[in-house]
């Protein structure tokens, strides 16, 4: 039987999870694949640190090169995170012809193109199932399960922290900052929380999914990203009254009749009747629309020791099979197939909108705002002026018909300048999920 000696770089949440999962199911994996798997070495930063997994001392080292360059190690798992040393770990391994498994979305987002090219050049492979949505096998599904489909649209709730915060805001009518502070106490949000709540983590994952679905590498700088800091309890309440739930959605959508693709992350009004509206708490979900399969939904834990380890083990299984058969690039990590593809600038993307304004409560205000929308050719589908609000200004909510983001943003900038409009208007896009 082919012997696979795994070198794990990183023994933190995911590294410990993988060590434990292999201790539990390594024999099962070996018998299913028909090759033996064994953890050979584990590199960490601090040998004295207490870990979730009991890793024998003789396997541990603080020198990752010792692991990667060990001639006995024929498979490497990069589980340290970050984009500098992790890049070196992956490149060094690939150059030695050793396949690599990684869970590192930040690394792939920043250096994916270079790393996949290196894997090809050195005749080996890079596996990355755990980099998106923890335990959900979305990479394998896009790469293999949907290989015969054109992916017309993909919508993902891919950041558990944001989904947890938005879910609690909805259920409790609570403010963003109060729920965030609580989420940090409970360990559901990092300190500082910026990477998650400003949408960057979701953008890393959405970019990876978009690259795989559309066959050209997405430059992360081209992804339009908005986080959830500006979402208020009031927005969630009014959206609810209109029959919607606000979710942070990573959207990948082909623009009609063009090779341009919308790749974006922003808070989105999801109709309550749509399945994504009921994805709550730290759970993740990806809703895929293929031209042959139609609608498909993936749901599960997007992070955590065991869920993530499950995906790393799936990659380890694939790598074991490749090592056993000796077939190079049996399932290439990334196949460029739409070289003319490009990311559409957000200004060209067409959406419907929820707009919340704070206006002075006097006659004529609504007419002035409606005139600006009319001049911009933006139709209004409904207006709500909720009762029971007192004070200098009151909320005024508009649901707007389809318009490009560029046109809607310009109209809103004009409206914001009206003396009767107070504060910054809130604009949240509405998704109908129609093909
Ligand atoms: N946590 C999740 O739920 C999750 C889910 C999906 C993907 N991921 C991804 O998985 C990766 C690992 O995340 P994590 O949560 O496991 O991180 P973590 O708990 O911070 O663990 C990082 C590990 O890397 C080790 N390390 C850091 N620098 C090193 C170096 N130069 N040499 C050797 N070891 C080094 C650390 O050693 P010490 O322990 O000695 O400090 C630690 O064991 C990241 O890319 C992350 O984005 C995580």
Structural summary, described in words:
With 435 residues, the chain is α/β, with parallel strands linked by helices. It folds into 3 domains: 2-135 and 305-325, 3-Layer(aba) Sandwich (Rossmann fold); 141-301, 2-Layer Sandwich (Dihydrodipicolinate Reductase, domain 2); 348-430, 2-Layer Sandwich (Alpha-Beta Plaits). It has helices at 13-33, 64-68, 85-95, 105-121, 138-145, 160-172, 176-186, 194-197, 200-214, 233-241, 305-325, 365-375, 405-416; strands at 2-9, 35-43, 60-61, 75-78, 100-102, 126-127, 151-157, 224-225, 244-254, 260-271, 283-290, 294-301, 342-343, 350-360, 380-384, 393-404, 421-430. The strands form 2 sheets. Strands 7, 8, 9, 10, 11, 12, 13, 14, 15, 16 and 17 form an 11-stranded mixed beta sheet that branches. The chain has a 6-stranded parallel beta sheet with strand order 3-2-1-4-5-6, sandwiched between helices. Helix 1 crosses helix 11 and helix 3 runs parallel beside helix 4. The mean pLDDT is 95. Bound molecules: NADP nicotinamide-adenine-dinucleotide phosphate.
